[in-house]
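Inverse folding, one chain.
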């Protein structure tokens, strides 16, 4: 079943409040809403995209932009999600459009997934085991070599279980083919999946 309907959320520019602060509040509520959709209704087919997403491969600039598109397999799924209810405390900061059909708007498809920064200690442990050397020597080797920590745009969040802060770094890439499947409770792909959403 294809993603046939969508809703668009726009962050209202405010000179006194940084968009990343609003992204944090918005995505916290959205994450809770998707977890409830899965637990109460068994729905895992809600996916998102960032229409204004930008990432410069040279690492000079990156941004999420000010828009979030939320896709579903039916109007009913988006009505069940009820974004207006979940985002009612943010009405001064975000504008939620009514549910629309995707129709023929899509110019292609994108895959959205999480980028996890590499942990130097874990890299060193793996390198030490691979080379049969002491961990100290492996740490020195790994510290000398540039880490593959790319500056993808991110959203600052807090764990709902232990309140620890973490960054949800976002990779959004064009896809060759449309692929259907389920999404996680951020509305993006699990590590090994390449489920797509429409893009325009």
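Residues assigned per position:
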């Amino acid at each position: 079943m294809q993603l046939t309907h969508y809703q668009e959320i726009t962050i209202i520019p405010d000179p006194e409040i940084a968009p990343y602060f609003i992204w944090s509040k918005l995505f916290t509520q959205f994450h809770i809403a998707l977890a409830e959709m899965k637990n109460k209704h068994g729905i895992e087919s809600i996916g998102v995209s960032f229409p204004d997403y930008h990432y410069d491969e040279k690492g000079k600039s990156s941004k999420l932009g000010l828009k979030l598109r939320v896709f579903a397999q039916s109007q009913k799924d988006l009505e069940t999600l009820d974004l207006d209810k979940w985002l009612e405390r943010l009405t001064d900061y975000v504008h939620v459009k009514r549910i629309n059909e995707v129709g023929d708007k899509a110019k292609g498809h994108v895959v959205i997934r999480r980028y996890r920064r590499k942990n130097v200690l874990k890299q060193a442990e793996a390198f030490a085991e691979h080379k049969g050397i002491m961990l100290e020597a492996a740490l020195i080797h790994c510290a000398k070599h540039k880490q593959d920590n790319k500056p993808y745009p991110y959203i600052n969040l807090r764990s709902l279980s232990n309140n620890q802060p973490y960054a949800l770094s976002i990779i959004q890439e064009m896809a060759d083919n449309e692929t259907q499947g389920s999404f996680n409770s951020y509305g993006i792909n699990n590590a090994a999946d390449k489920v797509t959403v429409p893009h325009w």
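Helices lie at 19-41, 75-81, 83-86, 120-131, 135-144. The chain has five helices and eleven strands.
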